[in-house]
Amino acid sequence: MTRSTTRREPGLTLAGIAVCLALAALSPPAAAMATGGTDTVRSLYATLLSTMRNGATLGPRGRYAELDPVVRRVFDIPFMTRLAVGPQWEGVNEAQRQDVVRAFEHYVAAVYAERFDSYSGERLQVTGEQPSSGGTVITSQITKSNGEPVNINYLMRNNGGVWQIADVYLDGTISELATRRSEFAAILRTQGITGLIQTLNAKANTLTAARVEIGAAADVVRR
After folding, report:
1. Residues sharing a CB contact under 8 Å with residue 165, sequence separation 6 or more, in sequence order
2. How far apart are CA 120 and CA 61, in angstroms?
């Protein structure tokens, strides 16, 4: 069983999610637009499966390198960051906005790289598409190696003609954005926007550090 389905780092469902989520498998924007985001989610899943199957060879840094450009393409990270920061966004200058968006993207990609680290028969599949007042909802199911299904919904947003993920719902109800907003608010109250940027970057760097690679290699030996 991969850690992607058994372990959660505090502070992330997303990027969600303990199941929370190759480059050649990405579909062109026109196809994604035509299907309301179905192809976008499928391309994410194709990349995750490829990364998992090659996880031990790639290592944390290699997995991050594979996933970072995909996270940047399939997730509307600027939109998600703005909503997660909440009202304080209006008081943040443009340079800080760009920094926190990059830090959040860095964090999301690092968490996916750490969690989707190996493959033992998991199945990731899109199951449907539903209209929503906020855009389109793509329903999906991730089946763990023990056969246990986990339902993940993606709220899609048409961003300049390209459908991107704007929120992720675990079990169809637990909003990634709502979770992020609560966590960010606690950091912003005590450390401000600079503290939030530093916290996200520090967590991401820890996940992709050399010592994590050593730990991952040890896990492979133990399996």
Report:
1. 37, 40, 41, 44, 74, 75, 76, 154, 155, 156, 157
2. 21
- State phi, psi for 171 to the nearest 5 degrees: 60, 20
φ/ψ of residue 156, rounded to 5: -100, 145
Which pLDDT value is given to residue 35? Answer: 56
Q: Phi first, then psi: what are they for 6, rounded to 5°?
A: -130, -20
The domain limits of the chain are 3-210
Question: Which one is predicted more confidently, 192 or 218?
Answer: 192
Percent of the chain with pLDDT over 70: 78
| Average confidence (pLDDT) over 197-205 | 96
Residue 133 has what pLDDT?
79
Using DSSP's 3-state secondary structure scheme, residue 175 falls into strand
The CATH superfamily assigned to 3-210 is Tgt2/MlaC (3.10.450.710)
Higher pLDDT, 9 or 44: 44
Whether residue 192 is predicted with pLDDT greater than 90 in this model: the reply is yes
Selection from 189, 200, 209 nearest residue 80 by Cα: 200
**Cα torsion angle, 171, 172, 173, 175, sign:** positive
